[in-house]
Design goal:
The structure is a homodimer of 432-residue chains.
Chain A: H1 16-24, H2 30-48, E1 51-53, H3 56-67, E2 79-83, H4 110-117, E3 121-126, H5 154-161, E4 167-172, H6 178-184, E5 187-190, E6 210-215, H7 218-230, E7 244-249, H8 260-273, E8 277-282, H9 290-305, H10 307-312, H11 319-329, H12 333-353, E9 359-363, H13 380-388, E10 392-399, E11 405-411, H14 417-430
Parallel strand pairs in A: 2-3, 2-4, 7-8, 7-9
Antiparallel strand pairs in A: 1-3, 4-6, 5-6, 5-10, 9-11, 10-11
Helix pairs in contact in A: 2-3, 7-14, 9-11, 9-12, 9-13
Chain lengths: 432, 432
């Protein structure tokens, strides 16, 4: 091991991209990173409650094993938290539900296995809402423990925000990555629908469920994406001139807290000053129907996905989830297909709109994290984008009236994940 | 129980729609149906080898329980075989792979649970190829035991063809429902992509995997579809005048056996005589690229879906599947996205083409089932339709030179599953 300038005590606070360089140059070891993360867990977990399952000894065993191997790539030795609706062959996977309190999967989800192949240390399973849908997790927001971290990727967002690990996997069917990222003041990235394989992830809504990440830098999200989506990671981001930014005036702006829209308009002003080509944009019809279509589809599909749990464990399903299932049962095939038709039209229209814009921006959530942990907040600012299958990044550059974070959401064209992350990184730096 | 005209010894030979009426009028019981099916299994299973798991006592227990209840709907008391890549909470689910030889899922797949809710008797698990992809099942074709039943829904096709049960669930990523239906002389139905929930089915290729059925009548497929897709089942089919039939001249006609295309042209002639409006149609560009796009996508996605099995059990994966994984590894994100782009364009073009046609027809397979069980046959006549997400029905109305069955494939517009089944039923009757 060569000369060391890094205090191992703060390794848990560094981004994965930095850790990767330190590991590659022998300035730290995987075991030191794991120890720093575990110290933080030890100090804070009783309050934050980010983890549904964590075994420190097992984390250390993995890290030791990684230190004994030749590096497999830029994620080698980096700890990652896994949302607890994602199967792990060596850790319980409870889906946030008492139905699965003793559930030990026989295999890893595709995304977990690919991260192991890349040398990641699987840190543990992070708390989620009931089936990533309803009853909130017990997790608290590290920014202010009296507030919700948002959901459903609650634990991944809180663990990463609290520097218990640099990387967290999440999933989004409505707002489950972008909203907790916004509330916890971290970066959230939801990939384009379909680009990250979902084998081994509990299915809620087949045409909506999408894998995403919680990280502290856009660079870290890009590193994870390079491995899970599959492009060469160089550590160097392309830079863009005159980025064309559309401030997205969506039909649900009225749902935002009083100060939020002015903050977004201000952010647009800052981007203009930083050289972006900023304009306001109204979405083409029928995008005004997309959020409702998302709800119809989500209810219809999840009623079917959870047929086994509904039939066999009605008493172990929360009242709010049971009520959602009842609603889903009432939706006809015709209503479902017509919602899918609306979304097909919107996707075509959006692909045309993106000829004039590199990215759109809007708030990641209506405002700050609500008080209390029984309400994971409103999903309204993400449901449409999830349904339109577009890549979204939330960057923590705004503050609400109580000083809690609010994310700026950056939306890119379908399948432009690499470019959208590069632009989001560039925009993030404009606010630094 | 009222007056009986039915010999219980032949209940296994009757379609589910008939059994449903007999049950409803007290002319037979679920236990009598189960016994008749089990007698057939007992007589023939040693030769046909359709079942990966079957426990006769448990089948009888289920049937007895159904007889003791008030009927839940038209499928109440009807036995169904489940392809062994579909999870069952009470039966091993081996995915056709030694990796999962002792695998007992903790839950039912959505489709299994919905069938149980509807009162079905789950008969057992039917043989499949390795992960429904490669190494053939041990199943033989009941029409001629020296021939393949096709794959990968081999066991469901053989069990239904041999009258061991009236209904079988299958899945199709390439040709895995339509091909075995064609080879075994039964009806195959592959639903529109996405209409039947896939939660709890082993994922191979997320954008291709589709649930389908093996039955002996189109009416039975329609009955199953009414429950699993979700429309009211009346037992009465709409009738259509002047059905506009396109004989689909696809780019792979040259792959058909010598006699197959003339048979299809003859079938078109018969349909014309029966009052259909029949014409030949060439598919719009870029449909000539769709079959290759299906291959690219299948290889890319399955390489990722099976990451866990690849990494942890390389010695328990067949050479042919390992070779496929190697090919999948070599496919770039760009190549994958460009294949998806081709399919998006084809889907739009096909929706326009279907303004002029009610259905298209072509062979279900290149010809008769090949000799031997080591070769499940060529998937070429289905891969494009699977990739285009269209509903397809195979009806057993043709015979090859050795007297083995060849299916006539009927393809309908996206999401027109009910109508396509009604038209397929009407066409089937034209050949009676």
């Amino acid at each position: 091991m060569s000369s060391r300038s890094i205090n191992p005590g703060i390794l848990n606070e560094l981004p994965a991209t930095t850790l990767s360089r330190l590991l590659a140059t022998g300035q730290c070891s995987a075991i030191e990173i794991a120890e720093a993360c575990l110290r933080r867990v030890d100090a804070r977990e009783a309050e934050v409650k980010a983890w549904a399952y964590i075994d420190p000894e097992y984390v250390l065993r993995q890290a030791r094993a990684r230190d004994g191997e030749s590096p497999r790539g830029p994620l080698h030795g980096i700890p990652v938290g896994i949302k607890d609706i994602i199967n792990t062959s060596d850790m319980l996977t409870q889906f946030g539900s008492p139905v699965y309190r003793a559930h030990q999967p026989v295999n890893d989800a595709s995304c977990v296995s690919i991260l192991r192949e890349a040398g990641c240390v699987i840190m543990g399973k992070t708390e989620t809402m009931e089936f990533a849908v309803c009853h909130p997790a017990r997790t608290c927001n590290p920014e202010n423990l009296a507030h919700t971290p948002g959901g459903s990727s609650s634990g991944s967002a809180a663990a990463v925000a609290d520097c218990m690990c640099p990387l967290g996997l999440g999933t989004q069917t409505g707002a489950s990555v972008i909203r907790p990222a916004s509330y916890c003041g971290v970066v959230g990235f939801k990939a384009s629908y379909g680009l990250i394989n979902r084998a081994g992830i509990k299915s809620t809504s087949e045409t909506l469920d999408t894998v995403g990440f919680l990280t502290r830098t856009v660079g870290d999200a890009s590193l994870l994406a390079s491995v899970l989506i599959g492009w060469e990671y160089s550590g160097i981001f392309n830079k863009y001139d005159n980025i064309r930014v559309g401030i997205c005036h969506s039909s649900y702006w009225a749902s935002a807290d009083a100060g939020t829209i002015p903050m977004i308009l201000n952010a647009g002003e800052s981007l203009r000053e930083a050289g972006c080509d900023v304009s306001e944009v109204s979405l083409p019809r029928p995008c005004d129907l997309a959020t409702e279509a998302q709800a119809t589809i989500n209810l219809y599909e999840s009623f079917r996905s959870y047929s086994y749990e509904r039939s066999n464990f009605p008493d172990q399903i929360s009242k709010s989830l049971s009520a959602r299932f009842e609603k889903g049962k009432g939706i006809s095939l015709e209503a479902y297909l017509s919602a899918q038709q609306v979304l097909s039209e919107c996707r075509l229209k959006m692909s045309l709109l993106f000829k004039d814009f590199d990215v759109l921006i809007e708030p990641s959530a209506p405002g700050e994290a609500p008080y209390g942990i029984d309400n994971a907040g409103d999903a309204i600012f993400s449901r449409m984008w999830t349904a339109l299958h577009l890549p979204c990044v939330s960057i923590p550059v705004l503050k609400g009236p109580s000083g809690l974070p609010v994310g700026l959401q950056i939306i890119g064209p379908m399948h432009s994940d690499k470019r959208t992350l590069e632009i989001a990184d560039q925009i993030h730096r404009m606010f630094a």
